[in-house]
Specification:
The protein is an alpha+beta fold. Helices cover 46% and strands 20% of the residues. The longest helix is centred in the N-terminal third of the chain and has 27 residues, at 162-188.
């Protein structure tokens, strides 16, 4: 009762609390919702011209298209993001123009006689590159038409991700088709006017011969040039299109602590291999011993030329059953055992009957069919030719399965190993490859060079830093980061340690996932995320680890500092100085050289700087590269403003200052009137080839794209 009385006396508090609570719910709803049925802000990956892309939906498509198979997850997500951006832009633009793709048109692009390039690529015949696997495509078509997709998934005939995969593929096909229609609209509106064709004719057919002298920028030491901020600012303004950025970028400096094996690590690897040698030589179970000890063994016989040059001579001299090692080769300690030697054919002729299979159920059925065919042939009930014609599933069925003669390595490995190293001529064998199950017969062998080949087994221990070595370098990097909390301190400390190297990244936007020589990795992405939360001059307290792509150990630790922040627009002098300093120095050098040689003729310039004049012949205005001269557009441009016999003023080029003398101007060869129609067609065709990239670039530049990916990845 006392509690109720207290509440009655202070009822205003309760009213305020309820109001605050309701207001809180309303505010939360406003902050996290964009209206009924729309993606919340928390899950909105982005927005393209007002069209939202939900992060969860994006991930579902990513899983369906790539699953765990993407070797570069960030690159795969980048490609998928670009698809959704372009798909939204293309769909919106097509809708404005009344363009679309009907269901009938879509089905034709999926299953018709001339399907979409996407279908042709994803359903290519493995036996015939560039040829559509119509049988597999028809199989998918029938399952879809008979509404048996879920049944096929349940029975293991299709992957569980087939439905979202196919739906997304249809979006890809529609987008591609609409984009083609947009490009065609623009393409049909292009033409080349006569005046442009005439100008192009003159630029490509009028030639000039000239003598020139080049004074390289190196003639003036960098120390003789003084620069001010105004020099940098002028350069940036003159090259605004090249250096202006649309989105905020950040650059980092990072100190790399390379992790290399110690002497102790090398000794341990050698001793490990050495301890296995006796058993390696005595064992009669080579395959199980090698696999048990993480070595390699192969059914193939290899020639001396295919062995490592470090030990090829030694291996070829080994007796059967002998072992050699340990020796170091390719960053690992190895031991090799001679298993067999023999003369192998230079080429083999074979025939086969292939039963294609893409999943376990199909493989089992194909194996049963091949076993039955093998019995029929061996019993004399049927001929190989007739069964190949009836049961073969590739192009060889029309010629009795004959594959003709092939050199070693010309077939997929299981097939190649069978016919070259195992099969006896005239006997039947079965082998499984990526294409299915084959019934195989060798019908001919050619021995021309009678080259001896060897079958060998290897043990190997990768020469990598031990855990203790990695831990010691990590401790060093951690201490380095702890003692140098400012970038200026980091730079000074790195200069004092010759074992360290300091690198500067290029400008990165907030969605970057690769950093210079550090490559692409989760830690590279984490560095970018940190950089966009840090202040310029700050050093990260985290030491980032990067792994060897082959042996998967930590091969470097990295300490990172934020160098600068570039807002959208032109960069500041401070942030751009490192990138453009030499270019600005060269401009200053050009001014100095031009002043020193002004008024001098070509021979006087050559004598002053002890350089040899050179001559270029038949140069056209349209040329981008001139032999011995290089890519010097300012020189070529000036050339065609001069008459024969005239000498130019000093010209600032890409690699030095030039003076040139025109020895001859040759008028255009041929009749412009005769060549004009063909030239107009060529110029128009060239312009049309640039449309697909140009149209999409223009549409993207004009689109309003909000990118929230950095919040999620």
């Amino acid at each position: 009762m006392a509690l109720i009385g207290t509440i009655r006396k202070n009822s205003w508090i309760l009213v305020v609390m309820i109001a605050l609570g309701v207001g809180g719910f309303i505010l939360m709803d406003i902050m996290t919702s964009n209206g009924p049925g729309q993606a919340t802000t928390r899950t909105a990956l982005g927005k393209i011209n007002g069209q939202k892309l939900d992060q969860q939906a994006f991930e579902q498509i990513y899983d369906a298209m790539y699953g765990n198979s993407a070797s570069d997850a960030y690159g795969a997500r980048e490609a998928l993001w670009n698809f959704f951006v372009e798909e939204a832009i293309v769909s919106q633009e097509a809708s404005k123009l009344g363009l679309g793709v009907s269901r009938t048109e879509l089905l034709d692009l999926e299953f018709g006689p001339r399907p979409s390039p996407l279908i042709s690529q994803r359903f290519a015949d493995p036996d015939q590159p560039g040829v559509l696997n119509r049988e597999q495509l028809d199989y998918i078509k029938n399952i879809i038409q008979e509404n048996r997709v879920q049944e096929a998934i349940d029975q293991g005939q299709l992957l569980p991700t087939f439905i979202p995969y196919w739906k997304h593929q249809e979006k890809e096909i529609i987008k591609e088709r609409l984009q083609t229609k947009l490009n065609n609209l623009v393409s049909k509106g292009l033409y080349t006017p006569s005046w442009m064709a005439e100008m192009g004719f003159n630029e490509s057919s009028e030639t000039a011969d000239f003598t020139y002298v080049k004074v390289p920028f190196d003639e003036i030491p960098n120390t003789d040039v003084s620069l001010s901020d105004s020099d940098y600012e002028a350069f940036l303004k003159e090259n605004e299109a090249k250096y202006r950025v649309k989105e905020e970028q950040r650059r980092i400096e990072y100190v790399v602590f390379d992790i290399v094996p110690t002497v102790e690590d090398s000794t341990a690897a050698r001793e490990k291999i050495g301890g296995l040698l006796a058993e390696f030589q005595s064992t009669t179970e080579d395959s199980s011993f090698v696999l048990r000890n993480a070595g390699t063994i192969d059914a193939a016989y290899v020639k001396k030329a295919d062995l490592s040059t470090a030990v090829a001579d030694t291996i070829m001299k080994l007796a059967k059953g002998s072992v050699f090692g340990p020796y170091i080769d390719g960053g690992a300690y190895k031991a090799v055992k001679m298993l067999d030697k023999k003369i192998i054919p230079d080429s083999v002729r074979s025939r086969h009957i292939l039963r294609q299979a893409t999943n376990p159920m199909e493989l089992a059925q194909a194996q049963k069919t091949i076993d039955s065919l093998k019995l029929l042939i061996e019993n004399g009930t049927a001929s190989f030719d007739s069964l190949a014609a009836r049961f073969g599933t590739d192009a060889t069925r029309t010629k009795g399965g004959d594959l003709g003669y092939t050199f070693a390595g010309g077939m997929v490995k299981p097939f190649n190993d069978l016919i070259f190293y195992e099969a006896e001529q005239g006997k039947l064998y079965t082998v499984e490859t990526q294409f299915g199950i084959h019934l195989v017969e060798v019908t001919g062998k050619k021995f021309i060079n009678n080259t001896e080949a060897v079958k060998v087994a290897y043990l190997q221990e990768q020469l990598v830093p031990s855990d203790d070595t990695q831990a010691a370098i990590y401790d060093k990097a951690s201490g380095f980061a702890f003692n140098n909390r400012k970038l200026s301190q980091l730079e000074e400390a790195a200069k004092k340690d010759p074992s360290l190297r300091m690198e500067t990244s290029a400008g990165m936007d907030r969605n970057a996932f690769a950093i210079g020589d550090l490559g692409t990795s989760g830690d590279a992405r984490e560095i970018v995320r940190w950089a966009f939360s840090a202040k310029a001059g700050e050093v990260s307290s985290t030491v980032y680890a990067f792994r060897d792509p082959v042996a998967y150990y930590n091969n470097k630790y990295v300490v990172v500092g934020l160098k600068d922040i570039q807002k959208p627009g032109l960069p500041s002098v401070a942030s751009a100085k490192t990138d453009i300093e030499q270019l600005v120095i060269n401009r200053k050098k050009a001014e100095l050289i031009k002043e020193r040689i002004k008024g001098k003729d070509l021979n006087a310039v050559a004598a002053t700087y002890k350089v040899q004049p050179d001559t270029a012949y038949s140069v056209t205005f349209a040329q981008s590269f001139v032999q011995n001269l290089g890519n010097e557009p300012a020189v070529v441009g000036t050339l065609f403003t001069l008459d024969s016999g005239k000498t130019s003023e000093p010209i600032a080029g890409e690699t030095g200052v030039f003076v040139l003398n025109v020895t001859r101007r040759n008028p255009p060869a041929g009749d412009a009137g005769v060549a004009l129609p063909q030239l107009k067609m060529q110029l128009t065709q060239t312009a049309r080839q640039q449309i697909p990239l140009g149209v999409m670039t223009a549409l993207k530049n004009n689109a309003k794209i909000k990118d929230n990916r950095a919040k999620f990845y």
